[in-house]
Amino acid sequence: MLELDQTVTMLIxxxxxxxxxxxxxxxxxERLGQISVKYNLLVxxxxxxxxxxxxxxxxxxxxxxxxxxxxRSITCVAPSKTFNLLSMHAATVIIPxxxxxxxxxxxxxxxxLDSPNTFGSLALETxxxxxxxxxxxxxxxxxxxxxxxxxxxxxxMPQIRVIQPEGTYLIWLDxxxxxxxxxxxxxxxxxxxxxxxxxxxxxxxxxxxxxRMNAACHMGVMDWFRExxxxxxxxxxxxxxxxxxxxxxxxxxxxxxxxxxxARAQAIVQAARSIQIMADELxxxxxxxxxxxxxxxxxxxxxxxxxxxxxxxxxxARQEAAFSNSARMKLPIRLGTQIEGPKPCPEQHIAGLRRxxxxxxxxxxxxxxVARGEKETYKEAILxxxxxxTRKQAGDSIVGTISxxxxxxxxxxxxxxxxYWMALSNxxxxxxxxxxxxxxxxxxxxxxxxxxxxxxxxDSNDLWKVTSQIAISEIRKAGEYLQAERxxxxxxxxxxxxxxxxxxxxxxxxxxKRGHIKEDSYWYCCPFxxxxxxxxxxxxxxxxxIPRGHVFVFEYGDDGEPGRFITQPTFQSADERKYCDD
Length: 582
What we know:
There is one protein chain. By secondary structure, the protein is an alpha+beta fold. The chain has 4 domains: 10-123, Aspartate Aminotransferase, domain 2 (3-Layer(aba) Sandwich), CATH 3.40.640; 134-230, Aspartate Aminotransferase, domain 1 (Alpha-Beta Complex), CATH 3.90.1150.10; 234-441, no CATH class; 457-568, no CATH class. Helix content is 48%, strand content 12%. The protein contains 17 helices and 16 strands. It has a 4-stranded mixed sheet with strand order 1-2-3-4. A 4-stranded antiparallel sheet has the order 5-6-8-7, with helices on one face. Strands 11-12-15-16 form a 4-stranded antiparallel sheet.
C-alpha cells in the first residue's frame, strides 16, 4: 500500500505522459483520485498534450472523473503543442473550485500576470474554434512519422526499441540493449545519426539508457534521419522519372546529330551518352519499377551530379553542331566532382561503380578495336583506353574478393573505389577522343585533385605567381620592386577566383609544356601577367581559337572584379606600368 509523507500536499500529473507517451485509463485515474482524497492532495494536471491522442486511446480529463476530484484539481491546457503557438504565450488554467480560483487569481494579480496578450488570446480562440480539421490531418501525419521510425529501428537496429506512444508527438527510445554509457549514447546519435536527442536522464535517473525523440517534424526530416542512420537514401519516384526522361533526351540527341559532320559535336554527344550510362548503371535496379528503392547516399548523390551535367552537355552539342567552336564548355568534358562517402565505401556503391565501368567498356570496346587500325591518329585515346581497362580489371579483382564473402580491410574498399574512379575518368575521355582525336592532343596532362580541381600556379602563396618573368626583371631594374609587391599584396587579398582563371592558367601551362605558345611580353596592369604568342597553326584557349602569330593575355580584374580574356594580332607596347596609386 502506498504511504506518503504528511508534508506532501500536491501531486503533479502529466496526462498524456511526457516523455513515455502513455494515455492514462479511467481506472488508473480513479485510483490516483482515491490516493489524492486519502492524503488530501491538490492535483495539478498538466494536459497540454491532450489533443494529441491516437486511435485506440482516449484522453480523460482528470477533473471529469468526479465532482469531488474536480474540486481538488487544477487543469493546465494550451494550444502551444497542438497548434505550434508557443510564441503566443497563451494558455488556460481550469480551476472548478471557487476558493482555489480566487487564490490563484490573487497570486496572478500580485505578480502582474493577470492580463493576457491580445494576440495570444485571439490565436488561442481561433485555434480551438477553427482548427479541428487541421488537427485531424496532423494526427495522421504524426502517426506516419512514428510508424516510419518504429519500422526503421525494427528492421535496421532492433537493439533500439521504440516505446509506442499512445499520445503526444514524442517517441521514447529504449537503448539499453546497446549497453552504452549515456555519454557514448549521446555521441552515437550526434555523430553517427547526426541528430541531437533529449537524453533520458534529464527526466530522472530512471531515464538512463533512454533517449527522447521529437516526431513533430516534416516527413523529409524523418527521411533524412533514416538516411543518416542507415547510410541509405530512397530515390523519390519523381527523381527516377526525371532521370529516365534525361536518358531519353540523350538518346534523341544521339539520333538527331548522327549525321552531323562536326567531330567536336559528335565527341560531346558521346560524352553525354557515357555520363548517362554511368549514372544509370550506378543506380542499377533502383531505376526499375514504380517503387523507390534504397541506395547508399553517396550513390544517389553521385548519380545526381552526373545526371545534372547532362543538360549543359546537350546544349553544347547542339551549339557545336550549329556553329564550329561555339560550345561554351571546357573540352574535353571530364568526369566531374567525386562525392565523398562513408568509410569504408559501401559495397553497394562499389558494385554500382563496377557496373558503370563495365557499361563504358561495352560502349567503347568495338570502336577502340577499329581505331587500332589508325593507331597514330588515335594514339591518345588508345593509351587512355589501355589505362582505363587495366584500372577496371584491378577494381574487378578487388570486388571479386569482397563479393565472395571474404572479409577485407577498409583499405581494399577504398582501393576498389579509386581504381574504378580512375577507369571512369579515362573512359569518358576515350569516348570523346574516338570521335575527335584532336580534342585529346591539347588536353592538360595534370590530373585533377581529390576535389576535382586541376592544380596550377594559382594554388601557390607566391605574390608573383602569375607575373611575367620579363615584367619581374624590368620592375627590378626600374627600382619598383617594393611598390609592385605592395600592389600584389592588395591584389591577391581582394582576388576572387572563378572557374575561368583556373581554366586559363592550366591551359596555358599545358600549351607552354608542349611548345605551342611562348611568352612574348607582359600586360601593363598589376599583377603584370605574361602575354603569349601562338607558335602552332592554332590553339584553343577559353573557347577562343587563336591562329599562329597572334597574341593573347588574361587581364586580371582590380579589387576582386572579374577579369577578361584578350586576343589580337599584336599588342602595342605600354610606356609604363600601371600601379594602384596611379
